Amino acid sequence: MNTRKASWMIGLAVTLVVAFALMAWTQRGLAAPPGDKASGGTEVKIDNFTFGPATVKVSAGTTVTWTNRDDVPHTVVSDDKTTFKSKALDTDEQFSFTFSKPGKYSYFCSVHPKMTGEVIVQ
Questions:
Q1: Contacting residues for 119 by C-beta, under 8 A, at least 6 apart
Q2: Which of these, 51, 59, 86, 102, is most buried using a 10 Å CB contact count?
Q3: Distance between CA atoms of 119 and 17, rounded to whole angstroms?
């Protein structure tokens, strides 16, 4: 291979590496912060028999989505058992609820009542 062609290939390789690094860095910078879904909602993960985060603070009109990452079914039920109530969620299934009124909403898993969480709507 001649020197000119080798130099061109090295230059192209360096340019591509820099371009991909910049793209990866930019994508990371645009990602939504943990707990915030790209749609403007908030996500609570169910994992290892806990709701995480256990307490979330949101504005009125926000949709909270719970995702079961555990290997066993879980539910999401408001303490009053009427405001919101999910079906049993298997692994990777989700339940969403939009909180329209300010207040404190405590909830639990009806299958494992020691699992509790809270949504504070401002």
A1: 55, 56, 58, 64, 99, 104, 105, 107
A2: 51
A3: 44
Instruction: Kindly state whether residue 64 falls inside one of the protein's structural domains.
Output: yes
**Claim to verify: residue 3 and residue 60 sit in the same structural domain:** no
Q: Do residues 77 and 12 lie in contact, with contact meaning Cβ atoms separated by under 8 Å?
A: no
Q: Are 57 and 1 part of one and the same domain?
A: no
Residue 99 CA to its chain's centroid (Å): 17
Q: Which residues pair with 62 in a beta bridge?
A: 99
For every residue of 13-57, DSSP letters joined together read: HHHHHHHHHHHHHHHHHHSPPTTB-TTS-EEEEEETTEEESSEEE
Q: Could you tell me if residue 37 is inside a domain?
A: no
Mean pLDDT calculated for residue range 70-96: 98
Residue type, 79: D
Q: 49: left (phi > 0), else alpha (psi -120 to 50), else beta?
A: left
Mean pLDDT of 86-105: 98
Tell me whether residue 36 is in a domain.
no
